[in-house]
Amino acid sequence: SQTIHQWPATLVQPVGSPLSLECTVEGTSNPNLYWYRQAAGRGLQLLFYSVGIGQISSEVPQNLSASRPQDRQFILSSKKLLLSDSGFYLCAWSGGTRDYEQYFGPGTRLTVT
Amino acid sequence: AQTVTQSQPEMSVQEAETVTLSCTYDTSENNYYLFWYKQPPSRQMILVIRQEAYKQQNATENRFSVNFQKAAKSFSLKISDSQLGDTAMYFCAFFLTGNQFYFGTGTSLTVIP
């Protein structure tokens, strides 16, 4: 069966510091991968999605970036965090014979102070 | 462009009663998928139910069922025999093959004992 991991689970970082959030998927190959942000009490905002290694599409221009160095690894980064980057970050995957379904990781709660 | 609208930010229901959450969407496409996701306080996103647009029969998963009205572009979720564990944020989502997923802003459901 497929599983998706995210780490860290929680993170507190000062303004201006760098960020690296990691997401990995097990049990499938060539998944579509997604990064979402969820502000407190709000819906999901799609940040990036990737259909393959090195292929990244950005939905929201901002100080965040994403990379996919391996087939099942998706990384969200920032060189300098802003207060507005605080939120709950969710990684998700879809693919295989049921690419119309999306499955989510446990999320990372980021607080920028 | 595809949009998903959830017009009920908050709802409550007595334990063991039935509640219906509303969702409407907008698309010019004919083949797509609709979903309801549940996000409990743990914030793990869980797929509750899926509906293929080409199917006329409404999807059912145990106590969860949908009322899919394609012409009206409506996709409501009915929860029967509500349980305390149903307390969560519920997101309606839309997927167009070869495209991305679109999420509504969510409905916060509280089950009252």
Tell me what the structure shows:
- The complex is a heterodimer of chains A (113) and B (113).
- With 113 residues, chain A is mainly β.
- Chain A is 0% helix and 63% strand.
- In chain A, the strands form two sheets. In chain A, strands 2, 4, 5, 6, 9, 10 and 11 form a seven-stranded mixed sheet that branches. Chain A has a four-stranded antiparallel sheet with strand order 1-3-8-7, with no helix packed on it.
- In chain A, a hairpin with a 2-residue loop joins strand 5 (44-52) and strand 6.
- The model of chain A has no long low-confidence stretch (mean pLDDT 92).
- With 113 residues, chain B is mostly beta strands.
- In chain B, strands 2, 5, 6, 10, 11 and 12 form a six-stranded mixed sheet that branches. In chain B, strands 3-9-8-7 form a four-stranded antiparallel sheet, with no helix packed on it.
- In chain B, a hairpin with a 6-residue loop joins strand 5 and strand 6 (46-52).
- Chain B is globular, with a radius of gyration of 14 Å.
- The N and C termini of chain B lie far apart (41 Å).
- The mean pLDDT of chain B is 94.
- At the A-B interface, strand 5, strand 9 and strand 10 of A face strand 5, strand 6 and strand 10 of B.
Pair with the biggest interface: A-B, 22 and 21 residues
The residue ranges of chain A in which pLDDT falls below 50 over 5 or more consecutive positions are none
Q: What's the number of helices of chain A?
A: 0
Note the run of SSEs of chain B as H and E: EEEEEEEEEEEE
- Total of DSSP H or I helical runs spanning 4+ residues of chain B: 0
Distance between the termini of chain A: 38 Å
Number-wise, the strands of chain B total 12
The number of strands of chain A is 11
What percentage of the residues of chain A does DSSP assign to strands (E)?
Answer: over 45%
Query: What structural class do helix, strand and pairing data of chain A support?
Result: mainly beta
What coarse outline of chain A follows from CA principal-axis ratios? globular
Helix share bin of chain B: under 10%
Radius of gyration of chain B using CA atoms only? 14 Å
**Multimerization state:** heterodimer
Report on the biggest sheet of chain A.
7 strands, mixed
- The helicity of chain A comes to under 10%
Structural class computed from helices and strand pairing of chain B: mainly beta
End-to-end separation of chain B in angstroms reads: 41 Å
Gyration radius of chain A, rounded: 13 Å
